[in-house]
């Protein structure tokens, strides 16, 4: 087998990570802000108060600035599967391509078509019709997330698919299993709710800034309250769904969970601590400076007191037979592909379930050719492959922890924000308003860490237990990768500068037109009975 | 006929329709982007031009994304191989495409002259380059692409990207597709603008239509000199595996093989040429709505001409012709194609109806005076 140069694989991974993380800076805000806009507009349509129309339009403008980059960078992701991961796309396109295409048909078309009307249709549509359009945009963007996460789940927890030796790729067996993949469902809710948290913090933080400056006070106080209440509900739900996801990973991706928890050895319930702080050392396969809370890990992950959780050592140790069997599968498959003999197919069928482990081990075959493996090579190949079996523990462990710690922080800040806002006491706590403003970037950071946990934690596989990452890339030269990387870094840097400039400009400018009533006292604001409108 | 063959054919047909919709809808917006600096001399005029397609460009762009998504889902091997072998070209296409959404949203958000002028150039690049590459891609696949497959399905590229970038026939095809987009963009501007934009757009639309016809005819004669491909052996119902089961012959003029066997196919090149010339004439007669629908005829004629010549090939290989990608050997499984067909049957009519509704809501001339005073416009 011709191996793709490791540099090309690494550069492809780096490029994908870079462009995906960049894309994911714009997605969560879109997901949440569309619903906040819809909520604000609903109040406008029901009460007829101009303030809520101003709110919808002002936050809508910031939404537009963010949305443009979300659309632009999403295009990159679609291209990259074909340009950089052609082996993956061919091998898994049946399953992965379908939800992606459905996303376009069902969700993205709806969102993109109606977003134009949302901005341009204020004077041309009746109020209820415009409201319906706004809801369709929100629905479209969230359905979009659903289908993307269905596609992603098929890589993390492949279901409804089998390998077909006639076509040398995975084939689609069950639409229902792919769509109702539990990982997809849990991740969709977790991710879209994380988007609501992001949008809530965004609206709350900017509103806090106005309150602090005593500008647009009426507008800001109302926006703040909507965002705070939306935020606290979303945060509670995000944490709940995070727990569901953790348990799913525990069942289906033991290596990811072990890496997330820094668990080198299989746990001995029930006293096993949940590690708060540690420095995992991937090279020597142990943790330094472990600080943990005893009796927490087992109930947290398994919701029982007596189920052990697999550690990385033990996972490694038990993989030997699968690797050996997998290599037999690959060798038989290769002979079958070249000579079309039925006996090779029969051998392949015997070892089929370990095919992925065979692929993973195949790069250690002499001259990367599985035909040349003799029984003498086997022990050495198995030892080398075992080391590749799990992800980078340090990165997985810490990105997961940052996400969790930030989640707890959001709970505290939104709880406090809701309490103070409902009691109309926000302006007595300038330090808190300041904290709200400075917290705007944090949900974006948390979402990125969540993504890193999920995706680094999946390594060394692109399709978990089936297709290794190093096999998935296109067979390019490194110079292609350098060319595209330079382009992405340049373009994306320009974009982010332009985006931040406009965001700051329009956020500072605040809502227009200016309401004279904004400078009045706002001791008694209430969403239902505001006298100022 | 076997169920699987029917599904493969239906999806090849749908892909054809999708490519036509892409050319028509995305091409129209791209044409406006290419023309922006030429139909609008002042900032207010340029803003007017942008706001004519402002409510629709985002939705139209999804045809492009759907084109990619449908190839991915229905013909994954084609998607993987074409996007990779054209790597440099695809990345250039991507870079120019991602400029567009940003340019739309950001251009008019700040007054500075340099800022707006910069984004105006971005519109020129992001209108011209993608349409050029769209056409050039057809030019390249008509000549074949150098690649072959390994036993496990990994493709290996056999020729350098320069041969796809700098290649006279591909450049001709690229310019033809740009001409059609200028025609369509010009016609769209005419429908919804007043003078002076209207008159300028009218001139460009006429030039676009005539240029497209001339290039299309030159391309037609050129194709006689190009080495084409003929599938001599290969079961349409075969498992989707490009490594086995096909025999392909190549000889100069082979792309006319289908036309010789089925002379009725000549209808498509005729349709294309007539629509391009007739379109230019109708533009001259100031009937932009009719001219818009004639533009659809030009795209149908062009894409179907290529499809009829190549059938059943998608992307022939010059270095290992037997590994050429055809409708038969690179599709998804029958089950996958059937699922997708069910989804498409529900959503495509829905998309067409709400897109039409959006155009209906936003109908009428866009007035410069109104655009300039509206804070929500581009």
From TrEMBL, chain A:
Q: Where in the cell is it found?
A: Cell inner membrane
| Keywords of this entry | Cell inner membrane, Cell membrane, Electron transport, Heme, Iron, Membrane, Metal-binding, Transmembrane, Transmembrane helix, Transport
Top-rank taxon of the source lineage equals Bacteria
- Bilayer topology: Multi-pass membrane protein
Q: Which residues cross the membrane?
A: 20-46, 58-75, 95-120, 132-150, 193-212, 224-242, 398-419, 431-452, 480-502
Q: Pfam families from the xrefs?
A: Cyt_bd_oxida_I
The record's principal subcellular location, in a coarse class, is membrane
The family classification in the record reads: Belongs to the cytochrome ubiquinol oxidase subunit 1 family.
Protein name per Swiss-Prot or TrEMBL: Cytochrome ubiquinol oxidase subunit I
The organism encoding this protein is Commensalibacter oyaizuii
Lineage, uppermost ranks: Bacteria, Pseudomonadati, Pseudomonadota, Alphaproteobacteria, Acetobacterales
From TrEMBL, chain B:
Which domain of life does the UniProt lineage start with? Bacteria
Q: What is its main location?
A: membrane
Membrane topology listed for this record: Multi-pass membrane protein
Annotated transmembrane regions: 12-40, 86-106, 118-141, 161-183, 204-224, 264-283, 290-314, 334-360
Could you list this entry's UniProt keywords, alphabetically sorted: Cell membrane, Electron transport, Heme, Iron, Membrane, Metal-binding, Transmembrane, Transmembrane helix, Transport
Is Glycoprotein one of the keywords?
Answer: no
Where does the record locate the signal sequence feature?
none
Name its cellular compartments: Cell membrane
- State if Iron is listed as a keyword: yes
Q: Name the NCBIfam families for this protein.
A: cydB
Q: Which family does it belong to?
A: Belongs to the cytochrome ubiquinol oxidase subunit 2 family.
Name of the protein in its database record: Cytochrome d ubiquinol oxidase subunit II
Organism of derivation = Commensalibacter oyaizuii
Q: What is the lineage of its organism?
A: Bacteria, Pseudomonadati, Pseudomonadota, Alphaproteobacteria, Acetobacterales
């Amino acid at each position: 087998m011709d191996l793709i140069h490791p540099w090309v694989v690494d550069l492809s991974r780096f490029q994908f990570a870079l462009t995906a993380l960049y894309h994911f800076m714009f997605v969560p805000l879109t997901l949440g802000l569309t619903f906040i806009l819809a909520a604000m507009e609903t109040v406008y349509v029901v009460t007829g108060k101009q303030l809520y129309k101003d709110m919808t339009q002002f936050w809508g403008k910031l939404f537009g600035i963010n949305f443009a980059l979300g659309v632009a960078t999403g295009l990159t992701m679609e291209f990259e599967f074909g340009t950089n991961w052609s082996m993956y796309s061919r091998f898994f396109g049946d399953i992965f391509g379908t939800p992606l295409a459905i996303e376009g048909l069902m969700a993205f078309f709806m969102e993109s078509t109606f977003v134009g009307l949302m901005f341009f249709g204020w004077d041309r549509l009746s109020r209820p019709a415009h409201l319906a359009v706004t809801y369709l945009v929100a629905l479209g963007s969230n359905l979009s997330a659903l289908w993307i996460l269905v596609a992603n789940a098929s890589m993390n927890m492949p279901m409804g698919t089998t390998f077909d030796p006639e076509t040398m790729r995975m084939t689609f067996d069950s639409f229902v299993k792919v769509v109702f993949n539990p990982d997809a469902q849990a991740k969709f809710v977790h991710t879209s709710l994380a988007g609501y948290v992001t949008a809530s913090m965004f609206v709350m933080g900017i509103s806090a800034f106005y309150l602090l400056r005593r500008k647009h006070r009426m507008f800001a106080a109302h926006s703040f309250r909507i965002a705070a209440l939306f935020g606290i509900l979303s945060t509670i739900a995000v944490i709940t769904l995070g727990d569901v996801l953790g348990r799913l990973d525990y069942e289906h991706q033991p290596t990811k969970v072990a890496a997330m928890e820094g668990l080198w050895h299989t746990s001995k319930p029930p006293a096993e601590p949940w590690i708060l702080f540690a420095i995992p050392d991937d090279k020597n396969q142990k943790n330094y400076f472990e600080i943990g809370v005893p009796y927490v890990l087992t109930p947290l992950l398994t919701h029982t007191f007596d189920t052990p959780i697999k550690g990385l050592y033990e996972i490694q140790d038990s993989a030997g037979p699968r690797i050996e069997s997998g290599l037999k599968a690959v060798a038989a498959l290769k002979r079958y592909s070249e000579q079309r003999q039925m006996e090779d197919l029969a051998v392949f069928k015997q070892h089929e379930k370990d095919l992925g482990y065979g692929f993973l081990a195949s790069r250690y075959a002499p001259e990367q050719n599985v035909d040349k493996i003799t029984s003498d090579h086997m022990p050495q190949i198995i030892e080398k492959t075992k080391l590749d079996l799990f992800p980078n523990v340090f990165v997985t462990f810490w990105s997961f922890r940052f996400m969790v710690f930030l989640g707890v922080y959001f709970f505290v800040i939104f709880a406090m924000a809701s309490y103070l806002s409902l009691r109309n006491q926000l302006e007595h706590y300038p330090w808190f308003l300041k904290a709200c403003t400075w917290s705007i970037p944090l949900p974006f950071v948390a979402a990125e860490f969540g993504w890193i946990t999920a995706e680094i934690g999946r390594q060394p596989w692109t399709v978990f237990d089936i297709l290794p990452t190093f096999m998935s890339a296109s067979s390019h030269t490194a110079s292609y990768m350098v060319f595209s990387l330079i382009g992405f870094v340049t373009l994306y840097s320009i974009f982010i500068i332009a985006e931040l400039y406009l965001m700051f400009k329009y956020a500072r400018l605040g809502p227009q037109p200016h309401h004279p009533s904004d400078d009045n006292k706002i001791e008694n604001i209430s969403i239902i009975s505001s006298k100022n409108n | 006929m076997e169920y699987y063959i029917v599904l493969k054919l239906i999806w090849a047909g749908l892909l054809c329709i999708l490519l036509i919709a892409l050319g028509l809808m995305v091409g129209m917006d791209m044409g406006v982007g290419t023309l922006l600096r030429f139909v609008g001399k002042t900032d207010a005029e340029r803003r007017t031009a942008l706001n004519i397609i402002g409510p629709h460009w985002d939705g139209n762009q999804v045809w492009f994304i759907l084109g990619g998504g449908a190839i991915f889902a229905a013909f994954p091997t084609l998607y993987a191989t074409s996007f990779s072998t054209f790597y440099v070209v695809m990345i250039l296409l991507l870079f120019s495409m991602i400029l567009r959404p940003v340019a739309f949203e950001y251009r008019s958000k700040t007054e500075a002259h340099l800022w707006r002028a910069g984004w105006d150039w971005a519109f020129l690049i992001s209108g011209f380059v993608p349409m050029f590459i769209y056409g050039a891609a057809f030019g390249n696949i008509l000549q074949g692409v150098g690649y072959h497959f390994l036993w496990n399905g990994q493709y290996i590229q056999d020729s350098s990207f320069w041969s796809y970038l700098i290649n006279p026939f591909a450049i001709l095809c690229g310019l033809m597709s740009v001409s059609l987009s200028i025609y369509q963009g010009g016609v769209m501007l005419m429908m919804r603008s007043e003078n002076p934009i209207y008159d300028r757009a009218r001139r460009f639309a006429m030039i676009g239509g005539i240029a497209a016809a001339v290039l299309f005819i030159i391309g037609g004669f050129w194709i006689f000199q190009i080495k084409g491909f003929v599938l001599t052996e290969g079961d349409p119902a075969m498992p989707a595996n490009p490594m086995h089961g096909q025999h392909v012959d190549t000889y100069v003029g082979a792309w006319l093989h289908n036309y010789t066997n089925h002379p009725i196919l000549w209808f498509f090149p005729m349709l294309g040429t007539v629509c391009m010339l007739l379109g230019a004439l109708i533009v001259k007669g100031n009937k932009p709505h009719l001219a818009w629908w004639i533009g659809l005829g030009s795209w149908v004629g062009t894409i179907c001409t290529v499809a009829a010549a190549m059938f059943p090939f998608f992307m022939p290989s010059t270095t290992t012709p037997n590994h050429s990608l055809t409708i038969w050997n690179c599709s998804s499984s029958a089950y996958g194609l059937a699922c997708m067909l069910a989804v498409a049957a529900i959503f495509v009519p829905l998309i067409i109806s709400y897109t039409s509704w959006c155009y209906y809501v936003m109908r009428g001339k866009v007035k410069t005076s109104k655009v300039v005073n509206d804070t929500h416009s581009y």
